[in-house]
UniProtKB/TrEMBL annotation:
Residues 461-484 have a biased composition (Basic and acidic residues). This is tRNA (guanine-N(7)-)-methyltransferase non-catalytic subunit. Keywords: Nucleus, Repeat, tRNA processing, WD repeat. InterPro entries: Trm82, WD40/YVTN_repeat-like_dom_sf, WD40_repeat_dom_sf, WD40_rpt. Required for the formation of N(7)-methylguanine at position 46 (m7G46) in tRNA. In the complex, it is required to stabilize and induce conformational changes of the catalytic subunit. Pathway: tRNA modification; N(7)-methylguanine-tRNA biosynthesis. WD repeats lie at residues 71-112, 211-251. Forms a heterodimer with the catalytic subunit. PROSITE patterns: WD_REPEATS_2, WD_REPEATS_REGION.
């Protein structure tokens, strides 16, 4: 076939109409509201969009942030927040690629650094000298936490690559209490435990173990005080690990068996490559209590909080209570405060993405203003779950660990939780929820956030017909222009 017979360079309208749906542009990013509590002081932080709302819940006072670093504030949605275990430092990171370290005594930003990609998780080293943060490209970076007069600007100064995950989104970071290990959970079902080095800026080349067993993406990882590791995933399970050996000690299903049936589907363009992923209710939030043995978890789309207790020797996780929230919005994030109460937040905001073309001062100011307006109008609902010291009825314990014989009697000593009054009343509620306190809107936003998480982290499923069609449309499968 000669050049005169070559196919047209562009497709006509009829071809575009036949374009498969999986080639459509991605939907707008929906970012969930997050919550974190100071481990020792009466302070709670809600992150919604690009805003941080900080409340002293004893006084009802909104704590104002002071930021003289450059940039002075987040310009896109915050994806990760964390306190250091001492409570002296707080970190935030987001889709603007910025990571900020805050001094919680004055709520002054002591350092801002910029990563190469959007931030997905943050964690402090045990000694508070270092902050580790991951991005959506699968890299974990490290920077010093700085000090008075040590703030740096948004250039990629003061950060080094600590470890990498080969282009898999890292969903959670955890540091062992003794500071020896850092755990990184990812989209590709892996939980990696690495030795945290004495000189982090030189990298962390030593891998301690891989904890393998989840059948879907991981959503959270937490070290327990005794050194064990707990992970949560899109397969609806909590898993207990011995991290030094990567040994799976227990699997506890929080979603019912009927909700996590494996689905066999093609997930790759490589011939003959297929895989299975458990589809069902993901665990979207996980928090550890100050006692170090109690956990609170939230399931995708469920108006309830599941309380899990670690009992016995060898240790085992058992469900102590399933607390119904009475149809309220499903939680997008959970946190225990210093008194052992659980703070629940539900809500989300649609991300405002302007790309990397923003360069002028005026454009940056407009972007900050738009992000602030989006956060101010976001639908957020905050609620407190308080302890009621009594035994747990058999009706409230409705799940058994898989492959473990822990009895219900041990769990009956755990505290029972109930929905309580928010400290500080309506004033505190106004600080944390902002001007948009619409319960229905918060529920819809929370639902959109969990769907967005599944779209981002879940493996794309293709039928055989779609697989063949995608191969046909790949550029490397098409003949060069003018050739037959």
């Amino acid at each position: 076939m000669g050049d005169e017979d070559a196919p047209p360079a562009t497709a006509g309208p009829s071809d575009k109409q036949k374009r498969p749906s999986y080639f459509n542009p991605k939907p707008p990013a929906i970012v969930p509201a997050l919550i974190a509590c100071h481990p020792h002081a009466p302070i709670v932080v809600v992150a919604i969009g690009a805003a941080l709302r900080v409340l002293n819940y004893e006084t009802g006072e909104a704590l104002l942030l002071s930021d003289a670093t450059i940039p002075r504030r987040h310009r896109e949605a915050i994806r990760a927040i964390a306190f250091h275990p001492s409570g002296a430092l707080f970190a935030s990171g987001g889709d603007d690629k910025l990571v900020k370290v805050w001094d919680t005594a004055t709520w002054t930003c002591r350092k801002t650094v910029s990563g190469p990609k959007k931030i997905s998780s943050v964690v402090f080293s045990a000694d508070a000298r270092w902050l580790c943060f991951s991005d959506k490209y699968g890299i974990v970076h490290v920077t010093s936490t700085g000090g008075p007069g040590d703030a740096v600007d948004s250039a990629e100064a003061g950060i080094k690559q600590l470890l990498a995950h080969c282009s898999s989104i890292i969903t959670s970071l955890a540091m062992s209490p003794d500071g020896r290990f850092i755990a990184s959970a990812d989209r590709d079902y892996k939980l990696r435990v690495s030795v945290f080095p004495a000189t982090p800026l030189a990298g962390a080349p030593e891998i301690q173990s891989f904890c393998l067993g989840h059948t879907s993406y991981l959503t959270a990882a937490l070290f327990l005080p005794g050194g064990l590791l707990v992970s949560a995933g899109g397969d609806g399970t909590l898993r207990l690990w011995q991290p030094q050996m990567g040994e799976l000690l227990q699997t506890l299903r929080l979603a019912g068996e009927q909700e996590i049936a494996p689905v066999e589907s093609v997930m790759s363009l490589d011939e003959g490559d297929s895989a299975s992923e458990s589809s069902g209710r993901a665990i979207v939030a996980l928090a550890l209590a100050p006692d170090g043995v109690s956990l609170a978890a939230a399931l995708e789309g469920c108006s309830e909080v599941v309380f899990v207790h670690m009992v016995g020797e060898p240790p085992a996780l058992v469900v102590a209570q399933r607390l119904s929230l009475g149809g309220r919005a499903p939680p997008t994030s959970l946190a225990f405060d210093a008194g052992g109460r659980v703070w629940r937040v539900a809500g989300a905001v649609q991300e405002i993405e302007t790309g990397d073309a923003v360069v002028t001062e005026e454009a940056l100011a407009a972007k900050e203003a738009a992000a602030a307006a989006a956060a101010a109008s976001a639908a957020v609902q905050v609620e407190l779950l308080q302890r009621r010291e009594t035994g747990v009825s058999a009706r409230e314990r409705s799940a058994e660990p898989v492959g473990h014989g822990a009895g219900e009697e041990a769990a009956s000593a755990a505290a029972v939780y109930e929905v309580g009054e928010l400290p500080g009343g309506s004033a505190a509620q106004g600080v944390l929820e902002g001007s948009q306190a619409d319960a229905q809107a918060a529920a819809e936003a929370a639902k959109a956030a969990t769907e967005a998480m599944r779209n981002l982290l879940g493996k794309r499923m293709y039928t055989e017909a779609e697989k063949i069609d995608r191969k046909r449309n790949r550029n490397d499968q098409k003949p060069p222009r003018g050739k037959s």
